[in-house]
Amino acid sequence: MDNRKYLPFIIIGIIAFVVLLSAFNRIFYRIEASERAVIFKTLSGELEKQNIIGPGWHVKAPWNEKYVYEVSESKIEETMDVLDKNGLSISVDVTIRFHPKYDAIGTIQENFRGDYIQRLVIPEARSTVRQVMGRYTAEEIYSTKRPEVEASIKEETRQVLGAPGNEVEMKSLLIRSIKLPEQIKTAIENKLKQEQEALAYEFRLDREKSEAERKRIAAEGEAQANKIINSSLTDELLKMRGIEATMNIANSPNSKVIVIGGADGGLPLILNGN
Q1: Residue 82 CA to chain centroid, in angstroms?
Q2: Where do the H-state alpha helices sit in the chain?
Q3: CB neighbours of 135 closer than 8 A, spacing ≥ 6?
Q4: What is the pLDDT of residues 47-90, one digit of tens each?
Q5: Residue 92: beta bridge partners?
Q6: What is the pTM of this model?
Q7: 211: alpha, beta or left, given left = phi > 0 and alpha = psi -120 to 50?
């Protein structure tokens, strides 16, 4: 049996299968849960920006193109050199977490052709970091105003990336490290140390002044109390207190000898008291 006569049919069948398989992949496509897509109509040249395609299986004309975007959170890490307010070079390490807005990937595709990270996120983040840090001195960035600098960078980067036409939502921006030239860093740390020592010295002075004032007030109060007591101790009062003490002692069970009127001022003398 000559099978060669079937060879053209086999070749045609293989070609047809390949064409059908290719057509299947061009017609049917799947979008994952972390993805979104938009369709570009090749014949009309129209990008369906408003028709955002969600997860699942979908069908399209084989001549149309689909653009798929990962919409789960992405992360980039950048190291850049910036200048402070006085022109001093500072090295900064930054981490940015972001994702494209789900309902705006058509706009992103139209404006950045899918490469929005390199064309938008990285350049704008770098530009904002440089602009914000250029408003502060190295000392402020490194120590006294670091939280303020970080907050300004985060807010301004978020506004730029999320502006109409950019449509990227920044989740967070973290400044991992700020590196100064070693001599500048040492000078700043020495200055801060001296300032802390000066504050500690002032605190000790204030505490000692407060303690001295407390003692002065206590001494004045004690002197005033003694003055009042002395002015109130008359001979009649002392005699009355002596008589009361004598009566209390006489009623106690201890043995004693009491001589009435034997002391100065007529106060009793107590002998052999236990």
Answers
A1: 22
A2: 7-27, 105-112, 116, 122-133, 138-139, 146-161, 182-232, 235-250
A3: 85, 152
A4: 998 999 999 999 888 889 999 999 999 999 999 988 888 888 88
A5: 80, 178
A6: 0.60
A7: alpha
